[in-house]
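Q: Fold this one first, please.
A: Sequence and structure below.
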Amino acid sequence: MESAKQIWETALGELQIQVSKANYTTWLKNSQGISYQENVFVVGVPSAFVAEWLTKSLHSLVSKTLAQIIGGDVDVQFTVHNQNQLTNGSLAYANQPDGGISTKAKIDRFNPKYTFANFIVGDCNRLAYAATIEVAENPGHSYNPLFIYSSTGQGKTHLLHAIGHRAISNGLKVAYTSAEQFTNEFVLAIKQGQVEDFRARLRTVHIFLFDDIQFISDK
């Protein structure tokens, strides 16, 4: 019999043509077959949020697809399993001057109201909401980089701050800046011959949050 990994790869090929590209990329692409014993098929996913969404939204379709491949009824279970997931270490967080890019951002740098719990999810922003949660929980994997684009007032900054809140609460190191702040500091680094120091400072973080990045597109 094929391994759980091989069976799931076959299932993914079938599921890819049954769901939208956005749903496949967001919810299924980074999953893997973990085990298949006594009619129980375990699928590993990057986060609890993904596991919950798949259980509520695609469980029936996934079960049907696997049953057709295996040739019998199957009980599908989604569980968090990510070998590449960053380990939450004990990072030292210190106050940074307001004028500099904070590579040890504290939660108080972000609007306390801009959290995932307070974000109103609708059809127009559901994918962006799911993608930002993935970035906050598993930086550098599914979406790297992630660009959020919309008209004014649709919640881009809210989601950016929500990433910061979630990532810091998970013990990750976050840098947050605006286009103006980044440009000013980069120009200063050039003048002072400290470009490498500037780059090195940002390379130490798990997540780099850049607000209004479009303003430096022509610079």
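Q: Good. Now the second chain.
A: Here it is, same layout.
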Amino acid sequence: MLRIKQEVASSMPSDRIVPLKQVRVDAKLRSFAADVIITQVFQNDESVSVEAVYCFPIEENAAIYGFVARIDDEREIVAEIKEKNAAQQEYTQALAQGYGAYLLEQDEASNDIFTISVGALKPGSQCHITISYVSELDLLHSSKKPTIRFVVPTTIAPRYSPSHKGIASPGETQVAYAESVPYTIEFTCQVETLDQNVACISSPSHPIKIDCSNGKIFLVTLTQQEIELDRDIIIDVELSDVRRNTIAAIDNGAVMISFIPSEQDCRQDSNNVTNEFFFVIDCSGSMAGDDKIGLARKAMLLFLKSLPVNCRFNIIRFGSKFSALFTDQVTREYNKENMCQAEAMIKDMGADLGGTELLMPLRWLKENKPPASCVRQIFLLTDGEVSNVSEVTNLCRDMAAYTRIFSFGLGHSPSRALVKGLARATNGYFNFIAPHTNVDIYVAEQLARALQPSIADVYVKWNTNQRILYKVPEHAPPVFVGDRLLFYALLDETMPFDHTTTVELFVGMQQQPIGLARIDHVPSVLGSQFVMRLAAKALLRELWNDQKTIDKELLVNISIKYGILCPYTAFIGVERRFNTNNERICPVAMTCWGQQVIASMVYNTEKLNTSDSKPVTHSTRDDINQSVHNSSSSNSQTSKMIWPIDEQKLVDRFIELQQYNGLWMLTADDVHQLTGKSLAIFSSSVIEKLEKNIQQSVITTAIVIILLETRCLALKTLWQALSNKAYKSLKDLLDGDESKVEQLMKDIRHQCL
């Protein structure tokens, strides 16, 4: 994408507007971070000099430390990092003098968008722009084994701007969009094993090839030589061994401690606090693509069936406006009547509310705080196509004392800055769900996490004689079982390294020790500034997020000291020339989503015609209809139901049929199909050992629990919350006697075998 003067755009031939010819990504993955080099090749095939202004995405936590321009393989300009206004002035002055100039900036409104300005590229010249950055890797929880995920964003989705009442240009540039993209991307990734055993490398986004000829490095490439820029590149590295909960990484200027709490670390009594659940669902026009609204429907159904009895909840749909399911109260009690209303709303939910204005519903939630006895949990499902990321994140940070946000980014290219930022600001968690992905597992994991307390008071003690300049984070956020929390210390490089350094982690008022790391050497394998760059970026991010006390001068000084880009600095390089000629400004296409821009422009209308939205697939719409029908009562099941054999489909059916109180009301025919035995056999066995007046729903619920445990164990994450809810209801119906529940389950299990 290029900044362009309107009078130039109107007369520009369509086949001469894109000087960006090639993009290449080379990455090295370590256990906790990635080192990435992006190369972009610009070529001016015109008869006059051109200025290319190209917007592109990079992970929001990336520490950009290098920006180099190489012209015609002859001259190399290594850019310097300077205060942004000064860098922009230097760039403008260079162009005015006919010099070549190269500028790299970070968008202040959305920290995952960057802009390159390649000024006065001479006729026939070719320019290679190289950007270097390091980035923390996410630790996933959707696998039984620890899995790290590396993401290369390749698309910038058109983002709705409330101030413009329409789609905003990334980087707030004035652009002309090209409707096709002549360039693609090449990708290679080296996965370094170090002291870990790699069990599996996969990609949920693209077909890949893996070269294992080098025992210490796996080389990952894409099976296609060149790919379109229509989705993010995702690489998952599954590790075969479970690491200890505390590990360290060091270089000459910084120390990093990684802490992953175990269940023992987080052991505590069951959660008796009343929970207040809000489901905030993006129903803007952009959710119609890739069946994102279908993913949201499926996620909502699982959320709804997994909620604990006696909690309170509400559902909010938002777009250009927002609406709540319950308007007479902020939340209502989770019971049969209210659950049925929610299911009906889910059934009719479409991508029909115009633009993506997330700020309005969040402001309403802030104005309506939860009671002191409640903990508020917000589940946000969105494609993240908003431009006012900082404003939204700051509002959520103000609610962090009583609210946690669990955010889900849907589709090929959600704003990672938004989805991650909201979760971080409120001590929640985030997930990204690609199209055609099983959303259930992610939803179940997040809900389970929301229902358990976290370690909220981790204290770090740095035992070193070396002077510590900065510690990040200043205050440790809450951390869940299996999550990873990173601590950094930036050290005084003028002092010799202290080989007796140790780092201790404690939790609680009594400072119970939970982790220890000894640092007795500086490993050369990590490189001299790898950890230091990550630490500097973490420090800049923490200072930037503290918008109430933001110190621009401090941010600039840290950015320049450590050579890491921030929203208030920019990389600038100038190539001095003589005998200059005329130039013009020309646009570059914004990857392949540029074809969607015209359609996206209608999103700022008050309400879209639902016929314009992508139709919901048969399975999604029918499953929800069937769920609403079957959940009312067992008496409504007048026709014979055919039960699926497939494990996933069987779990889906059980989710649909579970009642609000956790019970399953199955018919005699259902029981026979599922077990091969009559309901009477199960009933007689239970009545003989327990009581004569036991309800049929108690028996059928126990049957479902046993079937889930014996036939669907691999999907336990998916059904665990439903099973727990059912078990609690059984206990209540059996006079609170846990021994009766155990006897019931024993009898049913014996009959099922």
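Q: Anything worth noting on the second one?
A: The chain has 18 helices and 34 strands.
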